[in-house]
Design brief:
Blueprint: E1 2-10, E2 13-21, E3 46-53, E4 60-67, E5 82-86, E6 95-100, E7 107-114
Antiparallel strand pairs: 1-2, 3-4, 4-7, 5-6
């Protein structure tokens, strides 16, 4: 059994209406919603980071390999470059390490040395 109640208000007028629906056929009283998605996650950006400490001068060599970066002109909004940032244990402020160049290919490498 289904029940519907409608309340109408307008200025000082208030009206209420209630209706009961009876139906012995359960199939007519069943509502169904379906949905689906087809996600291809093979082309998500991914990368590897390798960090080595130089014991002589306490610098860090950072090697970053990235795959499947989106084309810069296809981003929303379009951009000119990708930028690599780092946050250290000593400071919560991000430090700009540099720009990734040549992102038109599926694989990109970035290398830098920092103190």
């Amino acid at each position: 059994m289904l029940k519907q109640k409608d309340d109408f208000t307008g200025g000082t007028l208030i009206s209420s209406q209630e209706q009961i629906y009876t139906n012995d056929n359960i199939r007519k009283n069943t509502f169904c919603f379906t949905g689906g998605a087809d996600l291809k996650i093979d082309n998500l950006a991914k990368g590897n980071v390798a960090i080595k400490k130089d014991k002589k001068n306490n610098n860090y060599q950072i090697h970053l390999q990235l795959s499947y970066l989106g084309e810069l002109d296809r981003l929303t909004p379009p951009k000119n470059t990708y930028v690599v940032w780092m946050v250290s244990d000593e400071s919560d402020l991000p430090v700009n390490l540099g720009q990734v160049v040549g992102t038109s290919k599926l694989k990109v490498k970035f290398e830098t040395v920092t103190a």
